[in-house]
Design a protein that fits this description.
With 316 residues, this protein is an alpha+beta fold. It has a single domain, classed as Lipoprotein localisation LolA/LolB/LppX (outer membrane lipoprotein receptor (LolB), chain A). It has 6 helices and 14 strands. A hairpin with a 4-residue loop joins strand 9 and strand 10.
Length: 316
């Protein structure tokens, strides 16, 4: 299960919109969503569609799901297929705070979390309970995989459809119709590990139903425009807000596929709320979580990366 939860969400990161550009729309797509060369329907601009999408996404800044059901499908190192169903609590405060406590029969098995600068992963299933921690800026996916973690919590946040698409001046974005012209794709470049910009680190494409501008699929691509994450959204439901009579919409089922491995994370997020009086800042504090879960070992991936780089640099 660790292999799934740590690989099913690996993808890309953050933001930067040239309303007349379609360069981001040229991202390759796997069938059946490859765009057709010509379209019977007019194609709206990136800015227009991104702003409509953001009307809902902008209201999803805080999410709490106390009774999430998580189904995982993955293939282990020996080639055997596994399926597991567990329960969990999901807490999120945009842009970077995440806490996903994965349990079975009330016992914590894994904990995936992050704050504004760091991410962490607790594995409590083996003979030795351990935690992995690192900074967003220093995230090294190859190294993280060797330790037992290849996901970035910010990617899970983006895959949930709660992050606004960039509409600032200079963002490279574009639109396209799906092959059957029922879904509208909105693609944009991502830069940096947060909203402050930087070099291009990947791409995001959101497929929306033009009737409601809600996501039906979210795809994350690496810098080579290879599809890494596919998150399929269904069963949209209203999020209960403590201060609004009608809340925004969030898919109550999100199926996340890590394309390179075929691992699948299927989350049922019924009864989502804005977490009023339920979201806990302690859940986004590594030291608090560590004191609660009591791992026997803690691996600092930034320090491991530094030592590895130093060792390579001293080779004759």
């Amino acid at each position: 299960m660790l292999a799934l939860l740590s690989t099913a969400l690996s993808g890309c990161t953050q933001t930067g919109a040239n309303p007349n550009s379609d360069s981001a729309a040229s991202i390759g797509a796997d069938s059946p969503d490859r765009p057709t060369d010509t379209h019977a329907k007019p194609l709206p601009t990136y800015i227009e569609t991104a702003q409509k999408y953001n009307q809902n996404a902008s209201r999803l800044s805080r999410i709490f799901v106390g009774g999430a059901v998580v189904r995982v499908t993955f293939t282990d190192d020996q080639g055997a297929s596994h399926r597991e169903q567990v329960e969990g609590t999901l807490q999120m405060i945009r842009p970077a705070k995440l806490a996903l406590n994965i349990r079975k029969v009330g016992q914590s098995l894994f904990w995936l979390g992050s704050d504004t600068t760091r991410y962490w992963w607790f594995d409590l299933t083996g003979d030795t309970k351990y935690a992995v921690i690192g900074t967003h800026a220093g995230f090294d996916q190859d190294l993280a995989k060797k330790i037992g973690l290849s996901i970035h919590p910010l990617e899970l946040i983006r895959a949930m459809g709660v992050v606004e698409l960039p509409t600032t001046q200079g963002t490279m974005g574009g639109t396209q119709w799906s092959s059957d012209e029922t879904l509208l794709g909105i693609a944009a470049e991502l830069s940096g590990t947060d909203a402050q910009g930087g070099s291009v680190t990947g791409f995001v494409r959101v497929w929306v139903d033009p009737a409601d501008n809600l996501p039906r699929k979210i795809e994350l691509f690496d810098v080579q425009k290879q599809l890494v994450i596919r998150a399929e959204h269904s069963e949209p439901a209203t999020v209960t807000m403590h201060d609004q009579p009608v809340g925004p919409s969030l898919a109550s089922r999100i199926v996340v596929t890590h394309v390179p491995s075929g691992a699948v994370l299927d989350m049922s997020l019924a009864d989502a709320t804005d977490g009023h009086k339920r979201l806990s800042e302690k859940a986004f504090d590594f030291d608090q979580v560590k004191n609660s879960l009591k791992p026997e070992k803690v691996y600092d991936l930034d320090e491991i990366k530094r030592q590895r780089t130093q060792k390579l640099g001293t080779r004759p």
